[in-house]
Amino acid sequence: MPAADTKSNHRGAGAAYYLSEQQRARIKLLSRSWVWRLELPTWVLIGVIYTGWFACVIYWQQLGTVLGSILLILFTAWYTSLQHELIHGHPTRWRRVNQLLGTLPLAVWYPYGLYRDSHIQHHKDEDLTHPEKDPESYYYTAKQWQNFPQLFKGIVRISNTFSGRLILGPALDIIATNRSAIRAFITGDRPAIAMWLVHFGLLGLLFYWMAGYGISAIFYILVISYPALSLTKVRSFFEHRAAENSAARSTLNEAAWPWRLLFLNLNYHLVHHDLPALPWYGLRRIYLESWVQYQHRSEQFVVNGYTEWFEAFVFTALAIEIHPFYDSENKARAEERLHTVIDRGDGHTESV
């Protein structure tokens, strides 16, 4: 891991930010334990998720439609959390091996490679929430917003409520993903086309196999896959906010253990962005060891569980439309201001 960055938050995707040299040494010590070196928790997780998912299909008739559907939704959502862990270099140091472990299209809608490339770009923290640079941003530039028809603006506002995000959020993601697939085939992007062809081939085999146990492709897409993606939207609902200090853009959600397990501790999202190579089973430990510093560093972007979001925003929209300090017409000034904000390492910021 790189040395502690005590001056700036503006670092490359995948680079670590340590609160102190002591924290760096602590993480290095933990990484030497045999459990961490062998990545045993992640290997157990892989076994449980794959065994559980395939068992639900094989014993579909015995489980019944209701129980079988609930279990498959949970395992499919859990699988997307596993894919995220694989993207960040776990459980092996070999990228192709990790990719092999996450390539099966259990979530249906996107290839692993597409998710990987997009998410790595998202980890460039100086661009977090940037409408044109962060692929996971929910913000728009002023020019983009002005050009949207009123109907789409209304859809965006609905999707910025907690209930709307669960209902409409997956559909908006699916539309964007399908557009990228169409664009790849139109432009002749061979690597992307190969990725999509592999994805479609595996998906066809998976649907054919499931049909033998009484689960049709349409049923799986509508009743399992879509709700599973909706479940992932619980975690990402207000995961990032626009803030001039990049450390204050990622939330710290002190969720209950079932959510932490389902989302593999990504509720401690600032810790994950600071230390993207830290395995899922280390996130909570590192957060609890330095929770005062992390809450200060996040500028109190702290949530007391997902119920807090539900109660505040079930029918009330987040104010996420035009990015508050970025737009295409004033790009130079906004970019300059972003890059003059520096974190001193103690939770405060200063300008240079």
Account of the 3D structure:
Strand 3 and strand 4 (349-351) form a beta hairpin. The protein is globular, with a radius of gyration of 21 Å. Residues 1-8 and 340-352 have low confidence and may be disordered. With 352 residues, it is an all-alpha fold. The longest helix has 26 residues, at 162-187. It is built from 18 helices and 4 strands. The chain crosses the membrane at residues 34-53, 59-79. Residues 66-288 form the Fatty acid desaturase domain. Pfam families: FA_desaturase. Keywords: Membrane, Transmembrane, Transmembrane helix.
State the gist of this model.
The protein is mainly α and 352 residues long. The protein contains 18 helices and four strands. Residues 1-8 and 340-352 have low confidence and may be disordered.
List the helices and strands and how they pair.
Blueprint: H1 21-31, H2 34-38, H3 40-58, H4 60-63, H5 65-87, H6 95-102, H7 112-122, H8 142-147, H9 150-159, H10 162-187, H11 190-211, H12 217-236, E1 252-253, H13 257-262, H14 269-274, H15 280-289, H16 291-297, E2 302-303, H17 306-313, H18 331-338, E3 341-343, E4 349-351
Transmembrane segments: 34-53, 59-79
Keywords: Membrane, Transmembrane, Transmembrane helix
InterPro entries: FA_desaturase_dom (IPR005804)
